Amino acid sequence: MSALEKGKDSAEHLSDEKTTAIAPGTATVDIPDPDAGLSDEERAAHDKTLLWKLDLKLIPWLSFLYLISFLDRTNIGNAKIDGLQEDLHLTNGQYNATLSIFFVSYSLFEPLTNVLLKKLRPSVFIPAIMVLWGITMTSMGLVHNFSGLMAARWWLGVAEAGLFPGVNYYLSCWYKRSEFGIRAAIFFSAAALAGSFGGLLAAAIAQMDGIGGKRGWAWIFILEGLATILVGIVSYWMVHDFPDSATFLTVDDRARVIRRLKADKQSSAEHESFQMSYFWASVKDWKTWCFAIIYMGCDGALYAFSLFLPTIIAQLGYKSTTANLLSVPPYAAAAVLTIFIGWLADRTRQRGLCNIGVSFLGIAGFSMLLGSDKPGVQYAGTFLGALGIYPCVANTISWASNNVEGVYKRGVTLGFVIGWGNLNGVVSSNIYRGQDKPRYTPGHAVVLAYMILFLLGGSLATRFLLSWENKKRARGERDHWAEGKDEKEVEALGDKRPDFMYTL
């Protein structure tokens, strides 16, 4: 048995009957392994019970928070078709600028907010940013001109920046890699549900037009903002901290969480101080840029779709309320497929093939929007567009996370990938121009190009390169990387360990 295999066996069975409990920013504490001496079957039974407990406590509420986050950033599309642009006397360029400014602040502040999440407790940081963006959202219903809306959208991006990357990092501190995909998919499916729920909610709230001297679109912002503030306050008790201090777990269950992470060779179970070498390792890694290209393809398409779907449907000849209602089914279908693809990718470990297959649905959908002027065909195209975009976002994040080892290197890599994808929201905000209606040919063409070149093309190229590297490692062509190194030094190589096989 090789040194690496012995290390793995030791991690799985913890022969010293202790496990090292470490969460980001905490000190090392040795506590007894509660399952020492149990058989593999008995350990598996305990793990199954633990997973169920974690899923119930973590996933539903965090997914609900992301639903609110995505709803609050995209409801401006629902407000537009209810009169926002006309009432504020916005030109088409000014309206698109209010969309773009969100993505600028959102992308710029993501790295900083992730650092704050590590410094502060999740149960403090996440509720705090929710209250801040709820206040900002409410203020959007009180603006009277372009500059007021621009200021509100800027601060909304600042406040929301910490949730999506923060929750993905947070969940990686709880789950093994083979379990992360389906949970990331469930979490992100809230974005699709937000589009579905947002259309229904906007249609209902818009009926308050004239109450209190406010237009219906203003009430959309005000009521949804007040709801966000309330949810943020409640989140102080609903968001739990890292495994070593989570109060909903017993001492034994906390030890089991850490033991499972160590068995999965996850750095979140080991103490690792930040060094600039981790940053440069990510920058120099070709995988970082490959995944950034793929994420660019699905995230750029995502924001274009979510911001302009109500407008697209309205141009098919439907009134504002009907257009909001008709935006519900495509999102609902996308949520279901997102979860299914997350489950399938976890089971098959073929994340690249899942991306490739799903991308063809989106390509077909936007081809229909681009090539036909029949309302029925175009509406069917919005279904396929949603089905081809949403599953790839969560799957790409899981794919990147699976193939980068080292908590700081992984954090930097995901920061680059997610940040670059979000910056493409600036492009997405400006491709559906008022002068292009009713067909919006340039907008559909740009989204189609994103999906063909970056999502499909990037997924094909990345899977080929990962497979090529795996074959080299299987033939022993990378064994020299570990020569002369002891077991700890080999583990420190992370995803450059000769026995580390990439997820395809």
From TrEMBL:
InterPro entries: MFS (IPR011701), MFS_dom (IPR020846), MFS_trans_sf (IPR036259). SUPFAM superfamilies: MFS general substrate transporter. The chain crosses the membrane at residues 124-146, 152-172, 184-205, 217-239, 289-313, 325-345, 352-371, 377-400, 412-432, 444-466. GO terms for cellular component: membrane. Keywords: Membrane, Transmembrane, Transmembrane helix, Transport. It is found in: Membrane. Its main location: membrane. One of its GO terms (molecular function) is transmembrane transporter activity. It is a multi-pass membrane protein. This is MFS nicotinic acid transporter-like protein Tna1. The keyword Iron does not apply. Residues 58-504 form the Major facilitator superfamily (MFS) profile domain. It comes from Pleomassaria siparia CBS 279.74.
